[in-house]
Specification:
This protein is an alpha+beta fold. It folds into two domains: about 180 residues, Jelly Rolls; about 100 residues, Homeodomain-like (Arc Repressor Mutant, subunit A), CATH 1.10.10. Helix 10 packs across helix 11.
């Protein structure tokens, strides 16, 4: 885990160390340990792994990827690797029940092909749960927590994997229901969500409006108008925000050279990338990397 002047980049191992307990490799559950939620409420960070969290008290405003999210009791949060999570504001009584795990932890299970949780949550990392779904997921969490601390020689990994698989199945079904509802929503709303999904998959190499318009089978002018009217941001702003967010993460959480970062983001040269970064942040990449604050 990187500290000081870097965006924090947590792995399951880091969380285990900071929480002062470890009962299972590749998996950890908060279990009422307030040190774990606190790690994610104070600083910009990313997670090397997957996280499933349920808010039970308080409220929090956070930016996940490119969108601001409001988290209140009954909110489900699903985080995928490498997304930058930026806390914006929170109440003192915020409480989250959270599970962290590496995907490898459940890779031995034969997941059906549609079980692609990464694809499902890209557009909606936060879901407002119904009272029934909220109660159901809390029961799963409580049972997983019970088995996590229980003494089960030799069988604990198998038990936890299968319980986690069942929990993820419940979560996947919630996303499937949302997709069904999504089909009946307005065309503009669908287009905005599809654009963001395509953007998150392609922003590293595709920086033009025409690419996204072609992918979504609409004209650049039409897509530009719909995105601006429904999000308040221009297409170029969305693309620039994605590129700058990724650049900041690389500069603060890795030792990759500026040349390597510029190549990863498909800039023609490191000097072009430096000019671009300074134009949008006011700092050169080196100044930003060396700064003590996450400017």
């Amino acid at each position: 885990m990187e500290k000081n002047n870097r965006i924090l980049n947590f792995s399951v191992k880091d969380i285990t160390t900071l929480a002062d307990f470890s009962l299972l490799d590749g998996f950890i559950i908060s279990g009422g340990n307030r040190r774990i939620p606190d790690l994610f409420l104070e600083y910009p960070h990313s997670v090397e792994g997957l996280a499933v969290s349920i808010c039970t008290e308080g409220h929090k405003k956070v930016k996940i990827g490119l969108r601001e999210q409001e988290i209140t009791p009954g909110t489900l949060i699903v985080l995928i690797p490498d997304l930058i999570i930026e806390p914006l504001e929170k109440s003192k009584d915020i409480s989250l029940k959270t599970i962290f795990f590496f995907y490898d932890f459940i890779s031995e299970l034969q997941l059906p092909s549609q079980f692609n949780i990464i694809e499902k949550i890209m557009a909606s990392p936060c879901i407002r749960l119904s009272d029934k779904d909220y109660a159901t997921l809390l029961r799963y969490y409580a049972f997983i927590e019970e088995q996590y601390v229980r003494y089960i020689p030799d069988f604990k990994p198998t038990v936890i994997r299968n319980l986690l698989f069942a929990l993820l199945g419940e979560i996947l079904s919630l996303y499937s229901i949302r997709e069904t509802k999504f089909l009946s929503t307005g065309h503009a709303e669908k287009l905005v969500n599809l654009f963001i999904e395509v953007l998150l998959k392609n922003y590293k190499s595709e920086h033009t409006v025409s690419f996204y318009a072609d992918k979504l089978c609409v004209t650049p002018k039409y897509l530009t108008t719909v995105i601006k009217q429904n999000t308040g941001k221009s297409m170029s702003t969305w693309i620039n925000n994605a590129l700058i967010a990724h650049s900041k993460r690389e500069l603060k959480t890795t030792d990759n050279s500026i040349l390597l970062i510029s190549e990863e983001l498909d800039f023609s040269s490191s000097s072009q990338f430096c000019r671009y970064f300074k134009k949008h942040t006011g700092f050169t990449p080196k100044q930003y990397r060396d700064s003590e604050d996450n400017l």
